Amino acid sequence: MAPGKIQTPIALDAMGGDNAPDSVIRGAEMALIRHPGIKFLIFGNEPQILPMLKSRPALKAASEIVHTSHIIGSEDKPSIAVRRGRSSSMWLAIESVKEGRACAVVSAGNTGALMAISKLVLRTLPGVSRPAIAALFPTLRGECVMLDLGANVESDAQDLYRFAIMGDAFARAVLGLSRPRIGLLNVGSEELKGRTEVKEAAMLLKDSRLSLNFHGFIEGNDIAAGTVDVVVTDGFSGNIALKTAEGAARLIRTYLRDAFNSSPVAKVGGALAMGALKNVKDKLDDRKRNGAMFLGLAGIAVKSHGGADAYSFCNAVSVAVELVAHHINTRIMDEIGHIPAAKTSIKPETTEEGI
Amino acid sequence: MAPGKIQTPIALDAMGGDNAPDSVIRGAEMALIRHPGIKFLIFGNEPQILPMLKSRPALKAASEIVHTSHIIGSEDKPSIAVRRGRSSSMWLAIESVKEGRACAVVSAGNTGALMAISKLVLRTLPGVSRPAIAALFPTLRGECVMLDLGANVESDAQDLYRFAIMGDAFARAVLGLSRPRIGLLNVGSEELKGRTEVKEAAMLLKDSRLSLNFHGFIEGNDIAAGTVDVVVTDGFSGNIALKTAEGAARLIRTYLRDAFNSSPVAKVGGALAMGALKNVKDKLDDRKRNGAMFLGLAGIAVKSHGGADAYSFCNAVSVAVELVAHHINTRIMDEIGHIPAAKTSIKPETTEEGI
Fold it and tell me: How far is A312 from chain B (nearest CA, A)?
């Protein structure tokens, strides 16, 4: 992407996340080095933020601070955040996207609140009734996009069809693929298997006149195998799959750490292999893939992990930059506009939660 | 368990699985050493099986062969297997449990066919409308039971409630726990989160007068963390979680193998740490945990992995032995009999497939 293209600032919720505002400001500084020319609208507590900018003249020159002392807490219920959060750093940052003062918002704050406020303020794209959370997952072939990761606990065939279109646009933008392979997560690869909505979504994708590269059904083990570039599923299964894989990775890391500490010889072995093992650690480093996008909203909103450090937050900013530079929403609208009889009804809310 | 207690033979489908009958016969031989005194009813092609028994006098003495040349293929549709499989080794083995000639059946054959035929021949336990597939999963604290792993693509609150009861009995029998902690898999641990049926199941479990140790909701990462001993979920999410974790483990193994081959120094390191790494491999060895039970049937049916080798098949036989010795179905019936207004209606079939 050509960074010079992004003229409008990126809005940062400086107060969201466990390490805010420190990790946000330091992450923004890193992002500025990676994407020279970008600008920031920083929402948060000015007396806390300003001293941090003083020692960072380049970042200070690229940033404008919008002061607010109101913060949405990580434990606040989304319904409460929606009712009482209008002067919070998160809300104001989202609103700046709505008003065109920013091209995207990045926040490491409360996922449920971020989704609820984003839906309320930004609204969904025409033809989309449910936004989805999309993020990257490591695979044997590189990386894949998975969605939905928890914006909705239930999804019908039309939702899954739109998730496929949105995931396709995301994979083109962030992974730079020209024809991403799309798979529907199921309990078997045969046509007769699975839930009704998944089977119906497969028919929609097969019969679609859009230029989607639909692979068919995939199973859980296909995610890390890299069988497809875009894994489409409902938010319940997607959230469980993502977190189960994280748990399995943590289990194996613990086993390995214990193994290398189990004897002096093993310790020496571990020390000799340290460089190579660091590569493995890097490949599995979640921080590299930080930055989940809320796809389907009429505005770009990127969720950073709540525990993000500066490097991690910088990567979330990069996701926003890529999505802006690649006009993700124009791509999505182009495709969704071609669906005959697009469903535009707004369904009742089933969840307010995310990853 | 006291092996001498099992007087009735265990039925083996000698023709099911990729390595049948070889792995079945060699696995049975291993199981006989592990559980002296057990007997086998071996269903399959006698001209193939008999020569293998000739060189194994102890196994020969403990076994009776029931000849059939009909085999259900690994690709056969369950509906076809049910209609045309009546003289197959799988069907006859299941039937022998129904008729009391065997106390349990173990098969490495086609999961969908095994479930469909087992349901038809054995029927479900009173008060259970949907059987579930249960198996063990490695955790930071040891092992947990997870169910359903794919017998049903959809489950309502009453189903999930019964899965909890059945999983509890399984954990007591196979893991030897006195009060297994039970968790409901969800997308968040707060009470308001998740699908309606999951929230309703939580209420049933909380209000239950049964002596269940209900922990509450858990998330995907809690599975491998060992937060609970019994993970209860629907067959769609359970199947996806299990296979996603397997895929993640395979990804990490590949990364590690590549890392240890990446340089001469790393190779030496790997060689020095080999003993310790073998321990990790052993802990993650799926073969150790082979043997998924079809819980909720009026008879014990254990599914071995299709690709099982002899050691793996032997472990599936061990699962059957434990379940028989611990009177798993009596335990389940005791608990389910205490549910007020037990639901006994048979629901329409939504899937015939398993793991």
Answer: 20
Residues contacting A343, CB < 8 A, separation 6+: A127, A129, A158
- Kindly determine whether residue B240 and residue A237, on different chains, have CB atoms separated by under 8 Å: yes
Check if the beta carbon of residue B260 is closer than 8 Å to that of residue A273.
Answer: yes
Residues B107-146: pLDDT tens digits?
Answer: 999 999 999 999 999 999 998 989 999 999 999 999 999 9
- Let me know whether B301 and B273 are in one domain: no
Q: Residue B109 maps to which CATH number?
A: 3.40.718.10
**Cβ–Cβ of B272/A268 closer than 8 Å?**
yes
Full-model pTM = 0.88
| Residues paired with B94 in a beta bridge | none
In a domain, A291, yes or no: no
The answer to whether residues A260 and A118 belong to one domain is: no
Q: For B235-258, how does the pLDDT look when each residue is reduced to its tens digit (9 = 90+)?
A: 999 999 999 999 999 999 898 888
- CB burial string A62-101: b at 16+ within 10 A, e below: bbebbebebbbebebbbeebbeebeebbbbbbbbbbbeee
For residue A191, what pLDDT is reported? 67
Q: Do A244 and B271 touch (CB under 8 A)?
A: no
Nearest CA in chain A to B352: A193
Domain boundary among A264, A286, A308: A286
Structural domain contains residue A241: yes
ipTM, two decimals, is 0.87
Residues A48, A189, single domain; the answer is: no
The number of domains in chain B is 2
> Is A113 a residue whose pLDDT tops 60?
yes
Cross-chain residue pair A233–B240, CB shorter than 8 Å: yes
